[in-house]
Every structure is written in C-alpha cells, then in structure tokens.
Amino acid sequence: MNTHSIPHTQGDFVQSLARGLELLRLVGASGGFLSVAEAADKTGLNPATTRRLLKTLEALGYLSYAERQYRLTSQVLELGYHYLTNLGISELVSGPIEALSDSLGEAVSVTVREGAEIVYVARARPARVMTVSLGIGARLPVWHTSMGRILLAALDAQRLDELLSSWVPSPARTAYSIVNKDLLREEVEHVRAHGWSMVDQELELGLRSLAVPLQRAGSIVAALNAATAQVGEKPAQSRERILPELLSTAETIGQLLEQVPRETLMPSRATG
Q: Global pTM?
C-alpha cells in the first residue's frame, strides 16, 4: 500500500507513525525479508526517508538487519500480546499442546528464536507445580535449551558460524552444561541429523527436556518441547515416553500452520 493513500483525519493523524506501522506490516507480508529499495518502492517513499524509518524500527528492537534486508523480531509480539494470546499462534497451538501436556503430565512449550535467545510464544502446564515457571514472552539462552538447539540446527552453516562466533560461554549452569563451542557444534549437528533434541539438566538440575521442530512448507518456524522433572528415569526412558507423542503433536501443529498466512508466523531460521 502506498502510504500517501492511507485515509486520515486532518490534524489528528501522525503520518510518520503511520508510515512506520505500514513498514512493519510490509516486512511481515514480504515473507520475512525486505530491503530499503523494496520498501521504498512499495510505500512510494523516497529511499532516504524509508531508510530512516527502518533504522528507527531497528533501534527500537522491532526489526533486525542482516544481508541488506530487514525482518521482524519477536519483540513485535509485545505490541499484540493480548491479540496473540487470543487469536495468534498461541490460540492456534493451544489445543494440541494442552492435549499433549495432559497426556504426558508435563509442561509443553512453543518458542521462536531471536538472536541468542528463545522466546516463548505458547505454553501448557500440568496441574502439578514445575520447578521452572515460564510464560509467553519469557526468554532463555539458546545454547542450553532443547528448543534452542532445534532452532540452531535450522540455520545454514554460515549463520550458525556467525552466531557461535558471538557466543562468549558463561560459567556452567550445572555440571552437565556444555560450555565448549566445538562440543556445542557437535551437539547441533547431532540434532540436525536426528530431528530432535534432548537437554538433560544443562539449564537446571532436575530438569530434562526434549524438543522437535515445527515446520511450515518445509521450513522450521518454531520449536516444540516437553520438559520433565522425572530425571530419576533414564534418558532413554524419557525419550521413549515423550518423543513419539511430541513428534505426533508437531505433525498436527504443522498441518494447522499450513492453513495460516506465512506473514503471521516468525520463521526462526532468519533471525540474527
């Protein structure tokens, strides 16, 4: 849409705000990537004005910039939190993840990646109290989480190298935490080869989680996991108990994702 054609009431309309919001919409509608030139062409604005608006949105955290293109970040979720909860991806996946949580008796979550963090966009919890309490919008480091490793495995070699090069390992959270880049890379390659991830007490003692990718049109757009405090059972037992249902639920959600416009989703593979 050309921003000059947006209807408004004289005196009560801030054109620069309208242009910024229109650019956010265009980035989403473009399939996740938009250059300055493309944005200027679509809005009818001159390139200099378009660049300033995009740089402002980037500075505010709503866009990220790489390879001469802009994309939405998960901070956009904060603009529409209540709408997201009721009508967005949270609503889309709520039925399947609640059913999975009830079946397993474990917490089930969906996340996307933003840079070196995963961002929770949906969550279902069993009646019993879990040691880790996380809600929509919560963030965790990508390195020590099963969903994080699924989303890392979705990156191509160059993107993975770039992200790993920026990682400064912090002191181990537990005795099980991987804090070596080469070991982490090996783990990510293992995840990529097998299509699922298990993290056993790396983030917190007494917490084990398994994750699988959520895909739309062959691209990984998010990750799904189940977390258990039943670390008394062997890892292989946890895998046998949880993974088949996790994969089945991911397939169900994938079918649902195919029914919604791509711009309503945030593909993890393109972030940072």
A: 0.64
